[in-house]
Amino acid sequence: MVTSSLIVTEGLTKRFGPVTAVSDLTVGIGAGVVGLIGANGAGKSTLIKILLGLLPATDGQATVLDLDVASDGGAIRERVGYMPEHDCLPPDVTATDFVVHMARMSGLPATAARERTADILRHVGLYEERYRAIGGYSTGMRQRVKLGQALVHDPQLVFLDEPTNGLDPAGRDDMLGLIARINSDFGISVLVTSHLLGELERVCDHIVVIDGGQLLRASSTEDVTAVSQVVVVEVDEPADELAALLQADGLTVRVVGRLLEVELGDDSAYDVVRDTVVRAGLGLIRMERRRHRMAEIFATAGGAR
Amino acid sequence: MSTPTPTTGVIHDIGYRHFDGERRGRSYIRRSLYIDSLKGAYGLGRSARYKVMPMILLALMCLPAGVIVAITAVTNGDELVGDYTSYILNLQLVVLIFLASQAPATVSRDLRFGVMSLYFSRPLERVDYVAAKYAAMVSALFVLTVAPLTIMFAGALVVGLSITEQIPDYLRAMAGAGLLSLNLGGIGLAIAAVTPRRGFAVAAIIAVLLVLAGVQGVLQELAIAEGFDGAPYFGLLSPFTLVQGLQSSLLGAASPLPSPPGATGALVFSAAALLVIASSLVVLLLRYRSVSVT
Fold first, then answer.
1. Which of A54, A78, A110 has its CB closest to that of B293?
2. Distance from CA of B221 to the nearest CA of A (A)
3. What residues in A contact B29, CB-CB < 8 Å?
4. Residue A250: CATH number of its domain
5. Partner-chain contact A105 B121, CB within 8 Å
6. Is A119 close to B15, i.e. CB distance below 8 A?
7. Among A172, A179, B178, B271, which residue's Cβ finds the most Cβ atoms within 10 Å?
8. ∠ CA B201-B203-B205 to the nearest 5 degrees?
9. Chain B touched by A45 (CB under 8 Å)
10. CA of B126: which chain A residue's CA is closest?
């Protein structure tokens, strides 16, 4: 459960003319790593801009770190870091010079700006290359600079907008690892957006799913990915034969490729599966409880609407 | 208990350190942006190739002043062979090229590469950004224009000319340099801010100011040749001659151009200068109000 909320919105609505980007959003977001998930255009970036106090809400209210977004934007932006989704780095300066400048732009005195820049660039994994002009950097390095400038002033909370965009699989893993460390090692809470469900499962404590500006679900990642009432069975022969036998025994069964998904009424279903496999003379390769996947949120929520 | 002794050097990860120091407010941030932008206009804090252009222009601007002092020294004359108050007008092309190359570097780059998102997600407000950048551009131009005047002044004193004879025109020219910087800085930034592509901005600034200077020159020559009474008012067409007119009508400086007549002339030229500065700032503020954070 969320104990203390860093971000609270109440009936938050933002309309751009006829388009409603955020619709009556009421949610509390606590400390830790929180994933804000939604398709492109679901209202994630609009929500972040409202929370930074850069975009006035049409209706409703929101607080960040107990500060009102409508009146205390400056104070919020002093204590929050922001990593935009899009490119935001000038090519003609070194990463060090740029991050020092950005630290000063957050109000850090010159000496502290230099010290913290050296620290934070090391933490995000930029070493010798930090003395080279950013123009020559790879996408992965640029993402690190963007992350570094969002953390250099030691914020309490950091907004990361699609930080894994454009990265290759190895780069994605590195970035997700860094995001987990921001919270566990640096003690900074993270609100990270993504349009990909799967990748946030690994690092988020909580997820907030929005679609069309509306809240679909807000819960802990554990709840979402809890074990389901389905057992996956794999045997060494095509599954059709076993499916027919199990259905005859009164179980609900679905064939998914080479696998069988068996609804688990009570624990006796395990015995039925075992006995039936033995009777049919099949080799049982595996039998395991399936976990829910985040993707199901959209399937069930979409069906419920 | 024993720990394995590392055979090579080890980097100790001292972990993340929080910042407990004082966070400074908007005025500190505005000042820092001003200082970094002023340095940036001369390529300081950027790689060597960004220093070449502004430094060459600064040298070009100062070279004639050095020559004037040298000739005065050699000929042992009792006054400088050049005027303080028409010096910048004569070298307006150098000032124009400096503005065209450095105004885009001061603002277009931030717009073009999306850096505005990072500025505006910080405590800084839009008006702070505009104020800091305008002040930086004006200061960069002031340094460029005042440096040669100061070389002439210092040179004049070194070769033994009377300080009381030198000071009035030196101060008049300094005031003129300040007024010119305020006007040109506004025009340059306003053009650069609405043309985010650096190349276009450079071309646009050169084109606008060269065309204005050309039109001004031709029309004023014609008016003088035709004996037209309003000839001095053609000085309003270009910022360089506008400031020249202010210098002669308000401050009583000698000028190669016809001086705006009396109080009316002074008033018209002052109003024009204020209008240029105010409208540039309005353009800049409107431009930055529409910049959204992405």
1. A54
2. 45
3. 104-107
4. 3.30.70
5. no
6. no
7. A179
8. 65
9. yes
10. A54
Which member of B24, B46, B292 has the closest CB to residue A93? B46
Which burial class, exposed, middle or buried, applies to A64 when counting CB atoms under 10 A from its CB (0-12, 13-18, 19+)? buried
CB A12 within 8 A of CB A22: yes
Q: Decide if A106 touches B, using CB distance below 8 A.
A: yes
Q: How far is CA A55 from CA A27, A52, A84, B5, in A?
A: 18, 8, 15, 57
How far away is chain B from the Cα of A143, in angstroms, using its nearest Cα? 14
Q: What is the pLDDT along chain B (294 residues), one digit of tens a residue?
A: 445 555 566 655 668 899 999 999 999 999 999 999 999 999 987 778 889 999 999 999 999 999 999 999 999 888 888 899 999 999 999 999 999 999 999 999 899 999 999 999 999 999 999 999 999 999 999 999 999 999 999 999 999 899 999 999 999 999 999 999 999 999 999 999 998 788 899 999 999 999 999 999 999 999 999 988 888 999 999 999 999 999 999 988 888 888 888 889 999 999 999 999 999 999 999 999 988 877
Q: Are residues A180 and A68 in the same domain?
A: yes
pTM assigned to the model: 0.85
Q: Do B114 and A86 touch (CB under 8 A)?
A: yes
Query: Contact, B206 vs B117, CB < 8 A?
Result: no
Tell me if B16 is assigned to some domain.
Answer: no
Q: Can you tell me which residue has the tokens 């404590």?
A: A205
